[in-house]
Design a protein that fits this description.
Elements: H1 25-35, E1 41-46, E2 49-54, E3 60-64, E4 67-71, E5 76-79, H2 83-89, E6 95-99, E7 102-105, E8 109-113, E9 120-124, E10 129-132, H3 137-144
Antiparallel strand pairs: 1-2, 3-4, 3-7, 4-5, 6-7, 8-9, 9-10
């Protein structure tokens, strides 16, 4: 695939043109992703207050007791979206699903410990530790390039 960027001072709004002999699934998916607008914030609820949570501030999103929570540096917030809805809204370059009940911000990972048999222990920069379930280990290894 060739990529060309043209700088034009008279251009007021970005315009993307894709030249291809025929439409295929890969290009259709690319067009869909480029045309979707992903919300930058997520509403977190705590003590009758709503806080707008920026994606880079999130460490992990997980489920417990049938509820969904978002963890930041110092606080935890309850979310009203389901995990699969959040997975669709979150930046895929920053977040990865590590189990049926947890999504992780890869930018907040301190280290991955591969010494556990069949799973990976993840240490976050805020001191929290969590685990990649066996089902998601191959996906995480692919992301890490190992």
């Amino acid at each position: 695939m060739q990529i060309e960027v043209k700088i034009d001072p008279s251009c007021r709004e970005p315009k993307l043109i894709i030249c291809i002999d025929k439409l295929n699934d890969k290009i259709a998916l690319l067009v869909k992703k480029l045309s979707e607008e992903t919300p930058e914030v997520i509403a977190g609820f705590r003590d009758q207050n709503v806080t707008l949570l920026a994606q880079p501030d999130l460490f992990r999103i997980y489920t417990a007791n049938g509820k969904v929570f978002a963890q930041t540096e110092r606080e935890e917030y309850q979310l009203r979206l389901r995990l699969f809805e959040l997975e669709q809204r979150l930046d895929k370059r920053m977040f990865a699903r590590i189990s049926h009940s947890e999504i992780l911000n890869l930018n907040k990972v301190k280290s991955f410990d591969l010494s556990f048999a069949g799973t990976i222990r993840v240490s976050l920069s805020n001191g929290t530790a969590t685990y990649v379930s066996r089902r998601y280990v191959p996906k995480i290894k692919q992301i890490l390039g190992i």
